Amino acid sequence: MKRIITSFEHISIMKHLLKWTLITIPVSLLAGSVIALFLWMLEKVTVIRWQHPWLLFLLPLAGIAIYFSYYFGGKAAEGGNNLIVDEIHKPGGGVPFRMAPLVLLTTVVTHLFGGSAGREGTAVQIGGSIASWIAKKLKLDKPDIKILLMTGVAAGFGAVFGTPLTGAVFALEVITVGKIHHKALLPCFMASVLADITCKSWGIHHTQYAIAFKHLLTSADGGFHMDWQLLISVIFGGVLFGLASYLFSELSHTIKNYSQRWIAKKWLIPFIGGMIIIALTFLLGTDSYLGLGVDNPNPNAVSILSCFRAGGASYLSWFWKLLFTAITLSMGFKGGEVTPLFFIGAALGNAVGMLTGAPIDLMAGLGFIAVFAGATNTPIACTLMGVELFGSENLIYFAIACFTAYYFSGHTGIYSAQRLGFSKLNGAPEADGNLTLQKIRKARLEKNKKNDQI
């Protein structure tokens, strides 16, 4: 009888699911609760900054404070999202639990004083550090540690944006470019959904976005019809969204590398970065590119929400947000890249809509998800995000924009620890699952340098 029970695979499946349900629950509850606190604090400090614009002048000093916070208390926590990705690929020293409070507080400080940053990176690090702490308490083996860290990523992402399905797929897709790790499918889904429910149970409300344009590909009589002019505009936009992703990733890495190389006293890096942000703000005469950028009390300011209407952004708004964010995050301030990427994409989509005559709100929505898809190499997760945020009526356009941007972003991304599972080009030498995007970028730069010398 015992042999019959143990040989029946569904018994093992049930035991596996029960195990991960019990392990996932504390990760989700803790991550969802801490992220709710983080989002509440972020909302409060953003309002304070709006009410007291002079706080921007303290951004350089805030940068120094952030630097020394990590210098004296951060240790390995400085690795951020890339540390979590590395630990998932090859568990070693673990993700320090101090990462959660450190990144939470320093991100809040960054936003209070006007740094252009997001929140996804912070949420993922919170989820990852909590998952790693629980893994150590339970003394899990390395394969289980990998899965639990992925559930932490899913919980953090799903809770911070209120997109549980996207959070689950993002955690599976972001680890290796071109591969999805199905082994962690159900644990990540459970973690993302439960963390999102927990976060909302604390009274947190996420921004509501809407695309008024609806284009159903199937008519009432069952026939298929396509607006080919709109399709061309979407493909054109997808190419530009991918190139914007590439520009953001490369500019961020370049600024970080050169600031580390040229500025001997490391605490001066965020100080100088803060000074540059102040100078750019006064040069442009607007605070539109500070902070999250989701909305702004100034009706004339550019924000993510304003990008969904005609005249809500200029033709270069996407570039200015890209520059502000690359400087902020590459020169020592803390926060995520994703919400600024939403801004960059929505503003670029607004410009594409104005140029091509395509619906502004549709193109802004496509840019919103597609620039993110290209910068993180997660086209499937971002397509699902489009459905969760905007509805399913324009699903085909979401997919076209995200998939196109994914290819045109090249072999680069904001997470340099990502491994390349499959090359975006058949037969390309980079197609090695052991190579990180950081190593691929280094090899590409060395090759270009040699070619310039010839």
How is the quaternary structure best described?
single chain
Indicate the mean pLDDT.
90
Rg, Å, rounded: 22 Å
SSE string, helices as H and strands as E? HHHHHHHHEHHHHHHHHEH
Question: Biggest sheet: strands side by side, in what order?
Answer: 1-2
> Helical segment tally?
17
Helical content band: 55-70%
Distance between the termini: 75 Å
So what's the overall shape? globular
Q: What portion of the residues fall into strands of 2 or more residues?
A: under 5%
Structural class: mainly alpha
Unreliable runs: none
Strand tally is 2
Q: Can you walk through the features of this model?
A:
Helices cover 66% and strands 1% of the residues. It has 17 helices and 2 strands. The relative contact order is 0.13. Strands 1-2 form a two-stranded parallel sheet. It starts with a helix and ends with a helix. It is globular. It is mainly alpha-helical.
Write the layout of secondary structure elements.
Blueprint: H1 2-7, H2 9-51, H3 59-73, H4 80-89, H5 99-112, H6 120-138, H7 142-161, H8 164-173, E1 176-177, H9 185-201, H10 228-262, H11 268-284, H12 317-330, H13 338-356, H14 360-376, H15 379-390, H16 395-408, E2 419-420, H17 437-453
Parallel strand pairs: 1-2
Q: Which key phrases capture this entry?
A:
454 residues; 17 helices; globular; mainly alpha; two-stranded parallel sheet; 66% helix
